[in-house]
Amino acid sequence: MSTRRQFLKQMGLASAGLVIPNVGKVMATPMTSKEHESAQSDKVKIAYIGIGNRGEQDIDESKKTGMVDVVALCDVDLDGKQAQKVLNMYPNAKRFRDFREMFENYGDHFEAVCAAVPDHMHFPVAMMALHYGKHIYLEKPMCRTFHEAELMMAAAKKRPDVVTQVGNQGHSEENYFQFKAWLDAGIIKDVTAVTAHMNNWRRWHPYDYKMQHMPDGDPLPKNMDWNTWLGACQWHPYSEKYHQGNWRSWYDFGMGALGDWGAHILDTIHEFLDLGLPYEITMKYAKGHNDFFFPYSSTILFRFAARGGMPPVDVTWYDGTDNMPPLPKGYGTSEYNADIPSTNQGDTPVAKVNPGKIIYSRDLTFKGGSHGSPLEIIPSEKAKEMKSKLPVVPESPSNHYENFLRACMGMEKTRSPFEINGVLSQVFCLGVIAQRLNTQLFFDPRTKQFTNNAFANSLLAGMPPRQGWEEFYKM
Description:
Strand order of the largest sheet: 13-12-11-7-10-9-8-14-15
Order of helices and strands: HHEHEHEHEHEHEHEHHHEEEEEEHHHEEH
Number of strands: 15
Structural class: alpha/beta
Number of helices: 15
Strand content: 15-25%
Low-confidence stretches: 1-31, 33-40
């Protein structure tokens, strides 16, 4: 049996340049005859980490494919009401509160994991999955610090047999295939500026930006494994302001509106325009700036250099209910896309402009929404003029969940693997550092260091991991 001590030791050896064994096989609990039968089926044996809220949505979508055999469920708050629906759906699945125990003591029973956990836990879950040779579908943003993305991409590169997929599901929908087809046909070319915006109400808007410390502790829910919830983060007492998705509000745990929605709005732009890393990240506006949670509203300018014959691009991000982006002439109305999943924030005010982007090229201007929403050429007169020149856009052969599961079976390649999504996530990490410091930063994409701010460089890795979690960062 591969114990946690052995796992940490092996990761420590890796930091010294030695090789980690391919897969940490465990045999603590023998497979039943039914599980052996399932192993020969055309379904992927999967374990879910984080089974409430967004995790529940991922589980529902995976179930629709008919391609999964659910063998394990893991959640630090198994007694919470958010977990009960999934527990009742799969009463025979093995249950865990600590994902490390699940990998160590039950890892031989599943071949893939799907993780919908707070942003600060994406890194350790992903690194353990890669170590154990388990395919992983990981919710976005891929990680919380620039350095974590570096380590995750490096670990995935060493494990080409392991399938990775980040959960920006629009990357398998119409916008993905349309953007590529229009780019290949020369419809999208010479892009010089992008406006990206997410102006809906967010969880932190009621908080007092003048607060002097993190929230006081609340009674811990019965049987909740708070120590595992915190992971590598420095100790904080439990607070209701962190649980049930509220962790998105805080720098210590989340990535704010940029990390939450940027992956759904900027993903195709970043990949197909080959943007890479920016050389400048500047906070143009921050309302309610403070040391603990994200600004109520913010405007961030990202500047990307020329690359491969394409001109430099300025990407400007707008968030906040009162921080609307400038709209070009002929923009028209902002249509709501009912296909976009709920944010689990209840009945909150809808922004005047729904989440999306405006792409400015030398000859054309494009309007797009979030997730898989297709692009439109604006104004409408120009769209009519271009209609006969537009190429046929191929249909997606699989949605994001099917794409991942088919990749696990060797039938497809994932469209948002760590190697692609990792750099996009790093862009968001740089943006969050600029938000946190409320300043202008210059970044060298070659050395991957800021050139004008030593303190900002320390935030590329963030706070040192808490005792007991250090070895995850030594690969």
